[in-house]
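Reader question, answered in our methods column.
A reader sent in the components of a multi-part assembly and asked whether the whole thing could be modeled at once rather than chain by chain. We filled in our standard form and ran it. Here is what they sent:
COMPLEX SIZE: two components
ENTRIES:
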Amino acid sequence: MSRVRIEIDLNSRDADGLTRARIADASGKLEPGQIVTAFESEDDVQALAMVRRIDAATGYVLLDVNWQSMRDDDHNSSAMDYTMLGVNRAMAIASNRSMAASGADVVSVRALRVNVP
Amino acid sequence: MDCDGSPVVIRFTPLAADKLRTNAEGTFADDTERRHTPARYGVSVLADGCRPGESIADVVARVCSDTRLGGKTIAVATGAELKKIGYDVVADPTDTELQHHLVGEDPFTALPDFEPLASLLEGRRMRNPAYGRGVAA
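And here is the structure of the entire assembly that came back:
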């Protein structure tokens, strides 16, 4: 299953630590809790990210980027990257704790389904 | 480039003018959402002054080691150099990025021409000395 790619600015971080990106810069449909590949084309790097909030009215999405997963961009998100599963799972667990605290149960379930084989 | 008494300004990629504009528009959206008055058009950068005995390379190494931001490439300039081409640098710290600043034209209520900024930064590319050494906690 193909993972959506979305271009980010490596300097973008709001007061909550989230990265603002434009919905128009995503390669596919986005929904809260979804794991995507965030990339920056000038630096040719990519990192895993979770969609935390979508504001269709303004055209922005807020991403929780796992900066520890940053690496050279392979320009291919079509296959599951098993080398990143540990990082991905840790990210899902951490995010789920945060989401659970805010009562977003559906998002939490979706995140674990994607990341735990 | 030596410490000139103004902040040492560091930006990760992208550095292209259209991407700087996009970043400034994102800042405006963020300010609007958080009801910061007035909402500002500013480009996100990190910046800090030289401490006694520090060179610009020392500041760059320190700031890049402390930040949670990451990337292979950075561009470095001083606040005085930016002022010469018409830009102001203002502090905009967050809980997670104490060195976060904005670059724009005071009072940051309009989008400036970002071509001169992009041109300066393009010639100041260097490798992030902290890349590959892990991300600051």
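What stands out: Chain A has a mean pLDDT of 79. The beta strands of chain A are 5-7, 19-22, 35-40, 45-55, 60-65, 71-72.
Send us your own complexes using the same form.
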